[in-house]
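Ticket #4471: structure output looks truncated?

Reporter: J.K.
Steps to reproduce: submitted the chain below (225 residues) through the standard prediction queue, then opened the result file.
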Amino acid sequence: MEMEAAGRCSRKRKSAELGSPEVGAASEGRGPGPTAGNQVPPPPPPLPGAEGGCSDRISDLPDAVLGEIISLLPTKEGARTQVLASRWRRLWRSAPLNLDCRPYLFDKDARDAIISRILAIHQGPGRRFCAPVYHLHGHRAEAWLRSPALDNLHELELCSYHPRFPFPPETQHPPPAAAFRFSDTLRVATIGECHLTDSTVQALLFPKLQKLALKRVPAYIGIQS
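Returned output as attached by the reporter:
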């Protein structure tokens, strides 16, 4: 009787061991279950203000710093920053405008409309305006250059003709009179392939000018700075 009772107790202990989580996992090839010494710690909580655990540190910069960054981007890329997040939607319109008209020269119909729209929706001030001087003629060009979006302009580039540009000029023209309304604020001025009269040159005064480039410009060099 004692031997039968001992056998029954042994079988019960084995059955209990086989039913335990550790043994069951080992029999299925999963190894022992986690213990207090090898548990994986939970992931750290996300940083305050972060989405998906990643902090957007660039958006945390002051508006003035973000505006300077945007003003260094090409025109199209600068405008596209408006779709990054709600934080960026208003920044491009108030950042210093960097308007390079050369990418829009290849479509005569769309060119004027695109440039006019950019100048209409931007609040200014202006940082840089670049366009071939032979495309700046007529009342529309005068309106562009007198737009408030270009107030306080720092860089003016009236670039000369390049073989990659469409619609080459037939003759050299003087730059629009409105181009010289920025003389008090310009730091950089590039004037290419246009005719400057002596009276125009002698009347110019650039008190803050740091760099001047003349490219294929027949003129008397008497610009004051």
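Triage note (M.O.): checked the attachment and the full token line is present. The radius of gyration is 35 Å.
Status: closed, working as intended.
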